[in-house]
Write a structure and sequence with these properties.
Two copies of one chain form a homodimer.
Chain A (H helix, E strand, L loop, with lengths): L11 H10 L3 E6 L2 E5 H18 L5 E4 L3 E3 H7 L1 H4 L6 E5 L3 H12 L8 E8 L7 H6 L9 E10 L12 E11 L1 H21 L5 E4 L6 H13 L3 E6 L8 E8 L3 H6 L10 E8 H12 L8 H7 L2
Parallel strand pairs in A: 3-7
Antiparallel strand pairs in A: 1-2, 4-6, 5-6, 7-8, 8-12, 9-10, 10-11, 11-12
Protein name (chains A, B): Seryl-tRNA synthetase
Chain lengths: ~300, ~300
């Protein structure tokens, strides 16, 4: 009952099938879109509470955004330049009764009715922090101490996969620090330390490594190399669906003044703000816990249980 | 500081502006898509905990679905027949590097690039229970006692509005009962009673009334009348943005065997299951609390505070 999953070194789909068999995830018919069992949710709840306790001294301001944001915001953000293949734009039917009759007839015949829709003003949020920068910029200049935010959002990335650690819809908890280069890099360093300690305390094997985002196309390769050369992105990796290719469960990003310049985030003296963030992949971390400690949480190691169910 | 909002009897937008001014909601530039302050989230958390306590004796099975579900599931559900105008379908860019260059050129020129996308297999979830029925049907026949589920999901409805109680993206907590007609109508009646007591205990004025869904078009009027004649839908209404038109914060629905027939939900003897649900509009209830008790939760009535922060 509580045996950790057989190490699925090559086939993530075997790990996924094991999660379905254990009733932790539920099939919907689309890769990367699953139902979650109550106990899966409880593990996420408890892990989030642990993260909150690790962050309590920082005094972050909690803000929440829904899983969708304005299309104009995504267009301005540069996301469509770097990751066009991952973005999701919400389209809706805006026709009259005659158009509706056509839609139903097409649906009845099994034809593609989706072109009868038009793009709305809403896109799906690709990372929890995207709506934050323009929201904070609208609140006026930063104080000298900068600012720190605590976010959580469902995110969408169009990358259907049978690796359960690569869902199309997943939750990200994120802390975002705005301030000077020194302030935000010190914040990132403190979470590189805290994140690794936190994951190790949960009995999970992990390494922290330099990383890059999956930029699109040939030009994207240069962006990725540049990001690596400057040490802008680190990831905390845990073997989840594969021992050979561990999964990024936490990421630690320094954006320099990219978002500050883009959205006009600045101090009272006009200096452009830098930003950094730490993101926790909530489904990924829960999956890592089930992978290494087994499907029965009652039989997880005592030290892990006492930490989560504190 | 703690004055309840001036009764915005005619203009919901005044109530919305008051929420922005108080920092409880944050503008994003799109009607019905807002950031939420930490205290707004905390009120939702505490209200949800109260609902959980009211339901604890029922022993519901918790399941969670993400804010998107398979398009095929929505197509089969009949939603596009009844509410085509509210549905949201996720489209993504699936082109090559040349297509991407075209997209960026159109974006640069301010042209409509959205037609370069194709429909994905994902649509946004319109109500928390939609993905549940096929999921439960796949688990085999129901036992004689039926089943009860505890759901929570972000939902999308394309109805941009300046009434803050009509968001495009909002959260719904929902209990869904599957069983015989007697079992599910008794469940609904118990929540009609419990729901009204719970809202009254929070110091909110409310009435329960017969209701209908916003079915599309002329044919929809007949469906709405039919739904009313059969007493299938009740709503608990609280004045939120308007005193004249109170807002449905809870709804109590009896689906007869509609979902049971559609998805093959049946008992071991082959009898088709009936279903009923109670839905809690989490943003709407939080808005009702701020509307009636003021923007400063520290100054809310003691009996309300002690109930929520129990």
């Amino acid at each position: 009952m509580n045996a950790p999953f057989k190490a699925p070194t090559t086939k993530a789909v075997d790990f996924l099938d094991g999660l379905f068999d254990a009733g932790l995830l539920m099939r919907t018919g689309v890769d990367g879109v699953y139902g979650r069992a109550g106990i899966f949710e409880e593990v996420i709840d408890r892990f989030e509470a642990l993260v909150t306790r690790a962050a309590v001294g920082d005094g972050a301001t909690r803000i929440h955004f829904p899983p969708g944001m304005p299309r104009r915001m995504l267009e301005k953000s540069g996301y469509l330049k770097s990751f066009p293949q991952l973005a999701g734009c919400v389209h809706s039917f805006m026709g009259n009764e005659r158009d509706h009759a056509q839609l139903l007839a097409m649906l009845e015949k099994g034809e593609d009715w989706t072109e009868l829709q038009q793009a709305t003003e809403v896109v799906l949020t690709p990372a929890a922090c995207y709506p934050l920068y323009p929201t904070v910029a609208a609140q006026g200049p930063l104080k000298p101490a900068g600012a720190l935010f605590d976010l959580k959002s469902y995110c969408f990335r169009h990358e259907p996969s049978q690796d359960p650690a690569r869902m199309q819809l997943f939750r990200m908890r994120e802390f975002v620090r705005l301030g000077t280069a020194e302030q935000v890099t010190a914040f990132r360093q403190s979470w590189l330390d805290r994140g690794e300690r936190l994951i190790a305390a949960l009995g999970l094997p992990c390494v922290v490594d330099l990383a890059n985002d999956p930029f699109f196309g040939r030009a994207g390769k240069m962006l990725a190399n540049n990001q690596r050369d400057q040490g802008l992105k680190f990831e905390l990796l845990i073997p989840v669906a594969s021992d050979d290719k561990p999964t990024a469960c936490l990421s630690f990003n320094y954006h320099q003044d990219h978002f500050g310049s883009l959205w006009g985030l600045q101090f009272e003296d006009g200096e452009i703000a830098h930003s950094a963030c730490v993101g926790f992949g909530l489904e990924r971390t829960a999956l890592a816990l089930f992978r290494h400690h087994g499907t029965d949480v009652e039989a997880w190691p005592d030290e892990v249980r006492s930490l989560l169910w504190a």
